[in-house]
Amino acid sequence: MAKQARVDQREWQAKRRERTRQLIELGGLVVKAGLVELTDDDRAVMLGVMVEAAAILRSERREQVMLMWRRRGKRAFEAADD
Q1: Closest CA relative to residue 35, chosen from 26, 25, 45
Q2: What's the rounded Cα separation, in Å, for the pair 12 and 18?
Q3: Tens digits of per-residue pLDDT, 1-12?
Q4: Degrees (nearest 5) of the Cα angle 75, 40, 72?
Q5: How deeply is 59 buried, as exposed, middle or buried, from its count of CB atoms within 10 A (0-12, 13-18, 19+)?
């Protein structure tokens, strides 16, 4: 029993660390995009922007917009590396 509990605890901790890392990386993208500065750290505005993006991704324009945003994102990553 105790051995299984330790295994379960380690698995839970590993999943939690993975999730924490993902959230930190996503937060970094928000900063890298300039949303924090451009909105004066207004979380409602930032969420609104993301909700709007999600609505666009649910539309018939999804593929076109994904292509455009992917290109733009790759350029932003490349510019950050310079």
Answers
A1: 45
A2: 10
A3: 777 777 788 899
A4: 10
A5: exposed
Cα–Cα distance measured from residue 49 to residue 43, given in angstroms and rounded to the nearest whole number? 10
Give the tokens for residue 73: 């994102």
pTM of this prediction exceeds 0.70 = yes
Query: Which residue's entry shows tokens 């330790």?
Result: 6
3 state SS for the chain: CHHHHHHHHHHHHHHHHHHHHHHHHHHHHHHHCCHHHHCCCCHHHHHHHHHHHHHHHCCCCHHHHHHHHHHHHHHHHHHHHC
Read off the amino acid at residue 72.
Answer: R
DSSP, res 1: -
